[in-house]
Automatic annotation (TrEMBL):
<keyword id="KW-0238">DNA-binding</keyword>
<feature type="domain" description="HTH cro/C1-type">
    <location>
        <begin position="37"/>
        <end position="73"/>
    </location>
</feature>
<dbReference type="InterPro" id="IPR047761">
    <property type="entry name" value="NadS-like"/>
</dbReference>
<keyword id="KW-0804">Transcription</keyword>
<protein>
    <submittedName>
        <fullName>Antitoxin HigA-2</fullName>
    </submittedName>
</protein>
<dbReference type="GO" id="GO:0003677">
    <property type="term" value="F:DNA binding"/>
</dbReference>
<dbReference type="InterPro" id="IPR052359">
    <property type="entry name" value="HTH-type_reg/antitoxin"/>
</dbReference>
<keyword id="KW-0614">Plasmid</keyword>
<dbReference type="Pfam" id="PF01381">
    <property type="entry name" value="HTH_3"/>
</dbReference>
<dbReference type="InterPro" id="IPR010982">
    <property type="entry name" value="Lambda_DNA-bd_dom_sf"/>
</dbReference>
<keyword id="KW-0805">Transcription regulation</keyword>
<dbReference type="InterPro" id="IPR001387">
    <property type="entry name" value="Cro/C1-type_HTH"/>
</dbReference>
């Protein structure tokens, strides 16, 4: 099978999956624990403004998470779970960049 045929087949499978055809599809579900955003931020020692800036979200977004009006999802949820395990992870990565 050529590279073109392989890519074409993959795209066809992706389109079929998007249309609801899950036959033969490998679905990977990742479960990320919910975190207490206030506790995570406080463990970093950063203010709300500093923490929001360090993870690339608006301060208003962080406030909504902290007050329970909204909940982090997707990449933000994963990043917060990482920070919960190692509060210095963002500073460590940014320092080395």
């Amino acid at each position: 099978m050529s590279v073109f045929e392989s890519v074409s087949k993959g795209l066809e499978e992706a389109l079929a999956f998007a249309d609801g055809d899950t036959s033969g599809a490998k679905v990977h579900k990742v479960s990320v624990a919910d975190v207490d955003v206030v506790e995570v931020r406080q463990r970093t020692g950063l203010s709300q403004a500093e923490f929001a800036k360090s993870i690339g979200v608006a301060k208003g977004t962080l406030l909504n998470w902290e007050h329970g009006r909204r909940h982090p999802t997707g990449p933000a949820q994963v990043l917060l779970a990482l920070i919960a395990k190692k509060p210095s992870v963002v500073q460590d990565l940014l320092r080395s960049a």
